[in-house]
Amino acid sequence: MLFRSYVQIALLEAAAVFAMPSWPALQEYKAHLPKVISNTPSLRPNHPIGPKHPGKPFPPSPARTKYCYVKSHGDGKDDADYILDAIKECNNGGHVIFSQGIEYTIGTALDLTFLNHVDIDIQGYIQFTNDTTYWQTHSFRQIFQNATTFFQLGGHDINVFGGGTIDGNGQIWYDLYASDIYILRPILFGTIGLHGGSISDLNLRYSPQYYNFVANSSDVVFSNISISGFSTSANVAKNTDGWDTYRSSNIVIQNSRVDNGDDCVSFKPNSTDVVVQGLQCNGSHGISVGSLGQYVGEVDIVKNIYVYNITMTNATDGARIKVWPGIPSALSGDLQGGGGTGAVSNITYNTMHISNVDYAIEITQCYGQKNLTLCNQFPSSLTIEDVTMEGFTGTTSAKFEPIVGYLVCSSPSVCREIEIKDIEVVGPEGGDEFTCEDVPVGGLEVNCTSVNKGSN
Ligand SMILES: *[C@@H]1O[C@H](CO)[C@@H](O)[C@H](O)[C@H]1NC(C)=O
Ligand SMILES: *[C@@H]1O[C@H](CO)[C@@H](O)[C@H](O)[C@H]1NC(C)=O
Ligand SMILES: *[C@@H]1O[C@H](CO)[C@@H](O)[C@H](O)[C@H]1NC(C)=O
Ligand SMILES: *[C@@H]1O[C@H](CO)[C@@H](O)[C@H](O)[C@H]1NC(C)=O
Ligand SMILES: *[C@@H]1O[C@H](CO)[C@@H](O)[C@H](O)[C@H]1NC(C)=O
Ligand SMILES: *[C@@H]1O[C@H](CO)[C@@H](O)[C@H](O)[C@H]1NC(C)=O
Ligand SMILES: *[C@@H]1O[C@H](CO)[C@@H](O)[C@H](O)[C@H]1NC(C)=O
Ligand SMILES: *[C@@H]1O[C@H](CO)[C@@H](O)[C@H](O)[C@H]1NC(C)=O
Ligand SMILES: *[C@@H]1O[C@H](CO)[C@@H](O)[C@H](O)[C@H]1NC(C)=O
Ligand SMILES: *[C@@H]1O[C@H](CO)[C@@H](O)[C@H](O)[C@H]1NC(C)=O
Ligand SMILES: *[C@@H]1O[C@H](CO)[C@@H](O)[C@H](O)[C@H]1NC(C)=O
Fold first, then answer.
1. DSSP strand E in 324-427: where?
2. Do 123 and 161 touch, CB atoms closer than 8 A?
3. How do beta strands 341-364 and 403-408 pair?
4. Stretch (H or E) spanning 168
5. Residue of the nearest CA to atom 4 in ligand 3?
6. What is the pLDDT of residues 377-386, one digit of tens each?
7. Cα 334 vs. chain centroid, distance in angstroms?
8. Ligand 2: nearest atom to the Cα of 143
9. Residue whose CA lies nearest to ligand 1 atom number 12
10. Which domain of life is it from (predicted)?
C-alpha cells in the first residue's frame, strides 16, 4: 500500500472540494492516526506521523505511556529547570503536561532539539522574561537574516498541543527596536530540525519578532494556531511574521488565525512541498514567497507550494512573490540585498478572499529597487516560473485605485509561465487594473495598464 505524506493528505483535502476525494488515500490516512491514550488530560491531536519520503511507511509512533507534570515556582522565577527535568524524564515515550491554570516563566534559552517520541501538552500559560540583555546574548542564532529564537524544538515524532498560551513579552522589544534596529529580537517558537510532528491548538502572543521559524524540518503539521499581539505604545510591533519556513519540506500550515503586521506566512530559501490552507490572516503583508535572491553567492529554491482557501483582510498584499534584482541595493539599514540566484517554481495560490488589501496579487522581481530602469539593466538571476494564481474575490483598499495588482519582472526572459485567472477583485471605486512590466502576458487574464517589452 502507498503511504502519503502530510502534504499529500492536505492536497487531497483541498482537492476534495473540487473533485471526488480519493477514498483509499483518505482511509489510509485515518488508519495511521496515532492512538489516543485514555485518561489523558487532553486528547492527542489526530495527526499521523509523516514519512520522510512518500511511498515509505509512517515510522512508528509509540503510545505515550508516562506522564510528567511540569512544576512552576509560580512567582515569576525562571521555571526552565523544571521544564527541562520534565521533558528529559518523559522523552522517548512520554507526555509532558503544563497544567491548566498554572503560569510558567522561562528565563533561560532551552535547547530542545534532542526530543524523540514525546508529546508536549501546554494547557497553561508560558511567558518569556523581559531580560533583553540576557536574551540577546543567549537566544539561539539561526544564521538566516540574523534570526534568533527563545528556544529550539526538534527531533522526531513530537506533538505539541494543549490549548494553552505562549507569550513572548514583546512590548519591551517593540520599544527597544524603535531605538536600535540592530538588536536581536528572539522569535517566539523555533521549530528547528523537527522531522515528523505536529504543533496544534495553541495561542501564540506578543512575539518580539516572527512567531514561528521552521528550519531544517520535514513532515510537520501546524494546525489551529491563534497568533496575535499588538504594541500598546507608539512603537509598532515589526517583523511579526506568522510563519517563516526555511530549508524545510513537507510542511502543512492550516486552519489558523493570524493577527499581525508582517507576512502571514513567508516561504524563505529552500522551502519545498508546503501546503498552507484555511488561514484567516488580518493586518499582514500577505502570504509571501521570499524575499529571495538577497545574498550574492547563494542559491535559493522555493518550489511546490500550494496555498488554498485563505481569507486576507487589512493587509498590504494577498499573494506575493518578492525577488531581489540582479545587483545589490538597500531597502533600509537592516534590509538590503540582491544578486543571489535560484528559482521559484510550481507555485499555486487557489481561492483567496480579500478585503481591504492594497494589492490582491503582487509579484516583483525588482524587490528593494525602486528604479525599474536600473532593475531591468541588471535582471534577476533568480527565475520565476510555473506560477498559478486563481480564484481571488473581494475588494482591495483604495491605496492604488484603480490598480488592484502588480506584476513586475526584471526581464521577460527570467519570468515564465505566469498564469493569473479567475480574478474577481475590484477596488472600492470598481477599478480592476494590474500594473504589468516585463511579465509574459500570455497567461494573464487581467487588465494590464502597461505592458512594457513583455512577450509570450
Ligand atoms: C520585567 O518583568 C518583571 C517581572 O514581570 C517586572 O517586574 C518588570 O517591571 C518588567 N520590566 C520591564 C522594563 O518591563
Ligand atoms: C540547519 O542545518 C545546517 C546543516 O547542518 C546547519 O548549518 C544550520 O545551522 C542549521 N540551522 C539553520 C537554521 O539553518
Ligand atoms: C545582521 O546584523 C549585522 C550587525 O548588526 C548587520 O550589519 C546586518 O545588516 C544584519 N543583517 C541582516 C540581514 O539583518
Ligand atoms: C483550537 O484550539 C483551541 C485552543 O487553543 C481549542 O479551544 C479549540 O477547540 C480548537 N479547535 C479545534 C477545531 O480543534
Ligand atoms: C476554508 O478555511 C476555513 C477556515 O478559515 C474553514 O472553516 C473552511 O472549512 C475551509 N473551506 C474549505 C472549502 O476548505
Ligand atoms: C486586524 O488588523 C487591523 C489592522 O492591522 C487591526 O486594526 C485590527 O485590530 C485587527 N483585528 C484583530 C481582531 O486583531
Ligand atoms: C538551497 O538549495 C540549493 C540547491 O540545492 C543549495 O545550493 C543551497 O546551498 C541551499 N541553501 C541553503 C541556505 O541551504
Ligand atoms: C507542484 O506542486 C504540487 C504541490 O503544490 C505538487 O502536488 C506537484 O506534484 C508539483 N508538480 C511537480 C511537477 O513537481
Ligand atoms: C480590519 O480592520 C478594520 C478596521 O481596523 C476592523 O474593523 C476589522 O475588524 C478588521 N478585520 C478583521 C477581520 O479583523
Ligand atoms: C534610474 O536608473 C537609470 C539607469 O541607471 C538612471 O539613468 C536614472 O537616472 C535613474 N532614475 C532615478 C530616478 O534615479
Ligand atoms: C477588463 O476590463 C473590461 C472593460 O472594463 C472588462 O469588461 C473586463 O471584464 C475586464 N477583464 C478582467 C479580466 O478583469
1. 329-332, 335-337, 341-364, 381-396, 403-408, 415-426
2. no
3. parallel
4. none
5. 182
6. 999 999 999 9
7. 21
8. 13
9. 130
10. Eukaryota
Handedness of CA 380, 381, 386, 391 (dihedral sign): negative
Nearest to 34 by CA among 44, 42, 26: 44
How many angstroms does the Cα of residue 20 sit away from the middle of ligand 11? Answer: 33
Ligand 5, pocket-test mutation among 309, 310, 354, most atoms within 8 A of CB: 309
Enumerate the domain spans of the chain. 50-448
Whether 285 is a known active-site residue: answer yes
Q: What is the pLDDT of residues 398-410, one digit of tens each?
A: 999 999 999 999 9
Candidate of 12, 223, 255, 256 to mutate for ligand 5, largest count of ligand atoms within 8 Å of Cβ: 255
All residues at 6 or more sequence positions from 323 whose CB lies less than 8 Å from its CB, including other chains: 290, 291, 292, 293, 344, 364, 365, 367, 380, 382, 384, 410
What residues does 316 pair with on adjacent strands?
none
434: buried, middle or exposed (CB in 10 Å: 19+, 13-18, 0-12)? buried
Evaluate if pTM is beyond 0.90: yes
- Please state, rounded to an integer, the average pLDDT across all residues of the chain: 88
**Phi, psi at 338, each rounded to 5°:** 125, 155
Mean pLDDT across 318-337: 81
Contacts of 22 (CB under 8 A, 6+ apart): 12, 15
> DSSP for 337-361?
E---EEEEEEEEEEEEEEEEEEEEE
Nearest alpha carbon to residue 318 among 292, 345, 353, 346 = 353
**CA count, 13 A, side-chain hemisphere, 273:** 19
Q: Cell 487531497 belongs to which residue?
A: 12
Q: Is the pLDDT of residue 337 over 60?
A: yes
Distance CA 453, CA 429 (A): 29
Please report the pLDDT score of residue 13 as a whole number.
66
Residue the block writes with cell 495553541: 202
CB half-sphere exposure, 65, CA atoms < 13 A: 5
Q: Give the ligand 10 atom nearest the CA of 371.
A: 1
Dihedral sign (CA 105, 87, 98, 158): positive
The single residue listed with the C-alpha cell 489510509 is 28
Q: Tell me how far the alpha carbon of residue 130 lies from the centroid of ligand 9, in angstroms.
A: 30
229 membership: H or E segment, kind and range: none
Our answer on whether the CB atom of 182 is closer than 6 Å to any ligand 3 atom is yes
Residue from 111, 113, 140, 143 whose mutation best tests the ligand 2 pocket (most atoms within 8 A of CB)? 143
Chain position carrying cell 527570467: 414
CA–CA separation, 200 vs 429, rounded Å? Answer: 41
